[in-house]
Each structure stands twice: as C-alpha cells, then as structure tokens.
C-alpha cells in the first residue's frame, strides 16, 4: 500500500492505494448522456503508472505537423478522484477548463492545500470518456522510481 504525499511539505494527498496495471486500451461503458459523469478510469483504492509522456509541452507528431502529441513527464500516477485528500483547485487555472468540467490540456489544475505546490491534473469535462486524475511523479513522494534522466528531476 502507498500513500502519496506532497514532495514539498509532506502533506498526504491520497488515501492508501494499491498498484494495479495501467490499461489505456480499456473501453469505457457507453453513456447515453454526454453530460453525465464519466466513469472512473482507475478503481477506488488503486493507482496505476502510465509509462508514456503526458501533458504539455506538446510536440508535432512525426510525419504530420498538424497533429500534436504529449511530451510532458513519463510515469504519471493515475488515481481515482475519490482517493484524493488535501488537494485544491489551482488558483491560476480558473476558466482554463472545458465547458462542463476540467480539461487536462492546460497542465496541472490541482495543488497541495497546505503549500500550493502543483500536484496533479484532473480530467472530467463532458467530452471525456473517462474521469481521472494524474499525479506528477516529481510532485509526490511514494511514487514508484522514475526513469533516470526524467526531465522533471
């Protein structure tokens, strides 16, 4: 079991969690109403590590300059929103969400309540097929080891 804490002040930001495999190919159940809450990507009480880059900065997709791909940190920790504690909305991200909720494409939108460090990005806008939160590995302790040369450290 792992309880993730803020790397700056030590405040717990999640409940105790157990690791599960990350499955980005998992298909969500269909929703009749796009404005209904999306299902959680990660079950309550679990976390998963995404090995791929996530978030800004964005880079052109090789062979197609019109498409952009994530080039942010690797090994973000994906958790269920109901397992979060002591996080607050980012004070400088007001109005940077989607039309009905939080859009993940603007960078961190959750901060540590105790010290204000940027900790995570939540995605729950109406167009999202999954509701998820990603903790940034350099912002939390308790994270599985990151790869040498990770740009956030």
Estimate what percentage of residues fall within beta strands. 25-35%
Q: In which order are the strands of the major sheet placed?
A: 2-3-6-10-9-8-7
Largest β-sheet summary:
7 strands, mixed
Structural classification = mainly beta
User: Please, what is the average pLDDT?
Assistant: 83
Helix content: under 10%
Question: Count of DSSP helices?
Answer: 0
Distance between the termini: 24 Å
Topology of this structure?
Elements (H helix, E strand, L loop, with lengths): L4 E2 L11 E2 L26 E5 L7 E4 L2 E7 L5 E4 L7 E3 L20 E3 L5 E6 L8 E4 L4 E2 L12
Parallel strand pairs: 2-3
Antiparallel strand pairs: 1-11, 3-6, 4-5, 6-10, 7-8, 8-9, 9-10
What would you note in describing this structure?
The chain is an all-beta fold and 153 residues long. The chain is built from no helices and eleven strands. The chain has strands at residues 5-6, 18-19, 46-50, 58-61, 64-70, 76-79, 87-89, 110-112, 118-123, 132-135, 140-141. Strands 2-3-6-10-9-8-7 form a seven-stranded mixed sheet, with no helix packed on it. A two-stranded antiparallel ribbon has the order 1-11. The protein has a two-stranded antiparallel sheet with strand order 4-5. It is globular and about 45 Å long.
